[in-house]
Amino acid sequence: MQMREAAERILFADSLDEKLTLAPEVANDDEPGMAIVEPDTPGRPDSLRISQKGVKASFPGVNRMDDDRERGVMMHFLANHELMAAELMALVLLKFPDAPKAYREGVYEAMREEQMHTLMYMRRMRECGIHFGDLPVNDYFWKLIAPMETPMDFVTRLNLTFEQSNLDFSKHYAGLFRQVGDTGTAAVLEKIYQDEIGHVGHGVKWFRKWKHQSDSDWQAFKKSLSFPLAPAKAKGMAPFNVEGRRLAGLDDDFIAHLEVCEQSRGRTPVVHWFNPNAESAVAASLTGDVFQPNKMESAMEQDLEILSIAWCRRDDLSLMRCVPGNQHLAKLKQFGFDLPEIVSLERVEDAMAERKLGGLRPWAWSPDATRILDPFADAVSESGEWKWRREAPAWWLAKEAGVRLNECLGLHDDVGAFFTEYDSALLAVQNMRQDRDLLLKSNFSCAGRGHFRVRKETSDAEIERWLKRCLAKHAGVLVEPWLDRVMDFSALYEMGADGQVRQIGLTEMQNDRAGRFLGSRVYPKWGGGIDPDVAKFLFADAGMMDWYRNKIPAALSGLLGDYRGPVGVDAMVYRDDDGALALRHVVELNVRMTMGRVALELQKKSKPGSGGLFRILRKSGMDAETLHDISHAGVESGLCLINDPENAREFLAVWEVI
Asked: Do 170 and 81 contact (CB within 8 A), yes or no?
């Protein structure tokens, strides 16, 4: 028999008996014939016709694997995949008659094995009371692979993507079926696993012959796939199987890259962008300048952008200036973090081509975020909650926002005053400093930077110089009394598409004496973690629950209008002039993501029911021994360096489960 004859029968026959009559072990290939154009669908009996509309077959959960019918449903699902693999291999033989003989022989052998796999699944499903054709089948593989233009397309799409993913699935599920006592199904999956190693290995061999020799295997594989296919689809929904990939001939570099590679598997991804210098970008835009980060600001952007893994979901996409190394990403996975798809800004247009998006969520809607995300505005689906927007009103990212919230709430004691003119600001400072120290805050300062403490000994000349510089750059200054700080905390919210403001949680903030951010602490139950006297004051005397669950969310909804996304309200417990505890309800309003929200999201992804401490440390101020200890802390220690200490220029983000 000629290979072509066997391939035509498998591809075009409309009865299962014909399609699955095993091709002879050896076939001639001296009459390969003319190349064909792929049909819209392979030949199938009426009960097994694949739908161009993509009828979706359901897949049973592993918790129901001991149920005969559920096992039969699973076998039906997998049998369709094996039959379609045989049909696609037949298509390769008919579509590329001039492919190398040795390659065609390998495809022919694999095609016979796919016939056998289908027959094994059919036998098992019959024993479970299901017949092939009882359930709908989809055309997913056919739509993605049949339009191939070269044998290399087939190798990368079927062998190196879908068959490679089956190295994870078949081995894992074989073990699960043995656990529930179904040795028959386990044996089928174990046989398929061994054959799949050979199929992937055959693909690897020819992939290496046909790829650009200057590219690594991983580089060539990434370049060969276009949306909706992506390298992440070469991983099954099962534990990652390093051993099987090595047996198939994949190299360690390829395996390491693939292990940490992610992409959405159905849900449209939300795109995240870390722009922590949003306030500075707004300040620059007000003077007509383009924001250029200084050395420390640039280090913050690069060192801490991986913090997006805290708030990203697994199917999301995080844009990064520098993609983290595989070894560090693997450590984060060991700690239990699900990774989003990570895309370098340098190749973002290729990665986003033709993709629909679920939304756009930068750290803050500043001019730089608007510019970076503008090319993807039209890709956001109509139902997406977080649409692209022009940069937020400047006051949203200014100290003025907190002033406006205080006004909405009718709060005036110890909240200070906001000024845009030099003379009025100077007069206020002169009047207010007579009986206490003051704190001056630049309008677009952030995390304690851009503050100036006015003490009794501070000269008028120092104050005047600072105010002039501040107003020239920030167009506003907040003048506050210096308070005897007891505790800083933050209330975190999410503002939804309906304008409703939902409280996410509370964190205790750790700031230095100057008010600069050091870290955030989260507790399983916030009131039970803070100082008991402070907790009693807040909940019993200050009416905290009503303020932060009712009054402040209602005020935010009216104040922020069409904003959608994260919001943080910083607050403070302090001692008044009589030494009694007092509450400053709103110290600042942050209309953006915050480090407190990062801590809260890290807690959700860590050990359930635990507390945690999130800190930003300075690498330059750390001795070598301390740096070594936190860099090499094991998962069991509960300590995790979120960013890679080897590549960090200045900042280290540390999460510790407590």
From this structure: no
Same domain, 180 and 41: yes
Helix (H) or strand (E) holding 518: strand 517-522
For the chain, residues with pLDDT lower than 70 are 52-63, 266
On whether both 30 and 77 belong to a single domain, the answer is yes
- Range(s) of the domain holding residue 346: 270-393
Instruction: Compute φ and ψ for 338, nearest 5 degrees.
Output: -75, 130
Contacts of 172 (CB under 8 A, 6+ apart): 236, 238, 239, 241
- The residue whose two tokens read 């805290």 is 310
Q: What is the 3-state secondary structure (H, E, C) of 344-407?
A: EHHHHHHHHCCCCECEEEECCCCHHHHHHHHHHHHHECCCCCECCCCCCCHHHHCCHHHHHHHH
* Residue pLDDT, tens place only, 517-557: 889 999 999 998 999 999 999 999 999 999 999 999 999 99
Side by side, the strands of the sheet bearing 501-511 are: 581-590, 565-575, 484-495, 501-511, 517-522, 612-618, 651-657, 639-641
Q: How far apart are the C-alpha atoms of 340 and 334, rounded to whole Å? A: 15
* Domain shared by 232 and 345, yes or no: no
Residue-level length of the chain? 658
Secondary structure of 311-341 as H, E, C letters? HCCCCCEEEECCCCCHHHHHHHHHCCCCCCE
Residue 579 CB partners (closer than 8 Å, separation 6+): none
- Whether residue 614 contacts residue 601, with contact meaning beta carbons closer than 8 Å, is answered with no
The predicted-structure confidence for 112-143, as pLDDT tens digits, reads as follows: 999 999 999 999 999 999 999 998 888 889 99
